[in-house]
């Protein structure tokens, strides 16, 4: 049945969206998959190269806030499943420029909800069956944990601490409200930190891999002891697929990797891998540089994914160590993907952010 689904994937040229497109097309041929992406600095059409010649695939450059365009696509393409990845996604950018986060994450998500309601729940007609709005969100909406606190569950109260997480929290609430108020068939997933291919090199793991290659400092905030749960992006996609197949309308599901690591542990693991794969005279760990902490930096996130495991049989398939090695291999083999990014705006931003690089 998933093979017949007609998907609109917002943000499909971003990191997780592009991985989802490839994952979905490899497993569900024969349906339809339309990507809607504004191609902001974080969107990269080249991440979709492998999908371009698939007959199921279509790319539309456009903004999720363009409600008329979204309604047109939903009708014209007979879309029955909207998977919403599009967002401003980088916490550091939300600190220096929060407006874009409210515009895209809050107003943009609301615009998509209005479009889905207009097309899927027309006045005085029964809702279209088997139509689903899946909203992709983050564990950061739950705030921060102490070292011994239990992991976040789906009933943990929201306590966002950054403009990014606050804007995602607001969008989650709007999705929930459109289910309870208008009867839109919605699901939400709140996921931990993703890593894997096609991740924009402003994020910790690709930033460090590329800086390791270039012999540049590896910037670590504060004492490096902030803890995140890490999940390979393909396991995130698998979790979303399970929710699309069997998730209950109106429900939220946490997706996690059972892999809590401090930032310093992650960067040290990368250094060890690079010592093996690209040995240099001195160990790569010498490049580790502690920088001033991020304001409002959450100390620890941890995900309790037992609801998704119990209801839908979810389990991450890769260990963090195996996934990290695969990811390093991918970046080493994919210079043609990341080389064009390491110029212009990105280079200036990294310089401003961490100094000197
Ligand atoms: P990303 O920044 O790599 O990609 C975002 C994509 O959205 C880009 O292709 C961009 O061009 C597009 N976009 C931005 N604004 C748009 C607009 N107004 N209209 C249309 N397209 C627009 O982000 P990502 O890391 O792939 O994250 C995807 C989603 O998953 C986000 O909603 C994010 O909050 C969520 N999430 C991310 C993580 C993570 O670790 N990266 C973890 C949990 C949840």
Describe the structure.
The protein has 357 residues and is α/β, with parallel strands linked by helices. The chain has a single domain (2-199, 231-260, 297-319), classed as NAD(P)-binding Rossmann-like Domain (Rossmann fold), CATH 3.40.50.720. 41% of the residues lie in helices and 16% in strands. The protein contains twelve helices and twelve strands. The chain has helices at 15-27, 67-76, 91-96, 99-120, 163-182, 204-214, 233-246, 263-277, 306-312, 320-333, 335-338, 344-354; strands spanning 6-10, 32-37, 57-61, 81-84, 132-138, 186-191, 193-195, 218-221, 227-232, 251-255, 260-262, 288-291. The strands form three sheets. It has a seven-stranded parallel β-sheet, with helices on both faces. Helix 1 packs across helix 7, helix 2 runs parallel beside helix 4 (99-120) and helix 8 packs across helix 10 (320-333). It is globular, with a radius of gyration of 20 Å. 43% of the residues are buried. Nicotinamide-adenine-dinucleotide is lined by residues 10-11, 13-17, 37-40, 42-43, 63-65, 85-87, 89, 104, 108, 136-138, 168, 191, 193-194, 200.
């Amino acid at each position: 049945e998933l093979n017949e689904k007609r998907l609109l994937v917002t943000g499909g040229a971003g990191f997780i969206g592009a991985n989802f497109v490839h994952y979905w097309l490899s497993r569900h041929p024969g349906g339809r998959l339309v990507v809607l992406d504004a191609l902001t600095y974080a969107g990269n059409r080249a991440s979709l190269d492998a999908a371009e010649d698939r007959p199921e695939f279509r790319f539309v450059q456009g903004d999720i806030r363009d409600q008329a365009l979204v309604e047109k696509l939903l009708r014209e393409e007979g879309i029955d499943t909207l998977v919403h990845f599009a967002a401003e996604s980088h916490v550091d950018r939300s600190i220096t420029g929060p407006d874009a986060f409210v515009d895209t994450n809050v107003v943009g998500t609301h615009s998509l909800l209005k479009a889905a309601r207009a097309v899927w729940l027309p006045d005085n007609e029964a809702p279209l069956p088997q139509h689903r709005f899946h909203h992709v969100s983050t564990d950061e909406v739950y705030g921060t944990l102490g070292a011994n606190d239990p992991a976040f569950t789906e009933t943990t109260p929201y306590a966002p601490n950054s403009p990014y997480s606050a804007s995602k929290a607001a969008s989650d609430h709007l999705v929930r409200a459109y289910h309870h108020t208008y009867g839109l068939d919605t699901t939400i997933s709140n996921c931990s930190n993703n890593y894997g291919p096609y991740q924009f090199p402003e994020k910790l793991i690709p930033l460090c891999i590329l800086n390791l290659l270039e012999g540049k400092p590896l910037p670590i905030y504060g004492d490096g002891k902030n803890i995140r749960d890490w999940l390979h992006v393909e396991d995130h996609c698998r979790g979303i697929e399970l929710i699309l197949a069997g998730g209950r309308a109106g429900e939220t599901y946490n997706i996690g990797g059972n892999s809590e690591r401090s930032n310093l542990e992650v960067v040290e693991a990368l250094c060890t891998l690079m010592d093996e794969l690209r040995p240099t005279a001195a160990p790569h760990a010498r490049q580790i540089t502690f920088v001033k902490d991020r304001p409002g930096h959450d100390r620890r996130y941890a995900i309790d994914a037992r609801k998704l495991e119990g209801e839908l049989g979810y389990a991450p398939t890769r260990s963090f160590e195996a996934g990290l090695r695969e990811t390093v291999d991918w970046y080493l083999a994919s210079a043609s993907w990341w080389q064009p990014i390491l110029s212009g705006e990105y280079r200036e931003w990294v310089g401003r952010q961490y100094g000197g690089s």
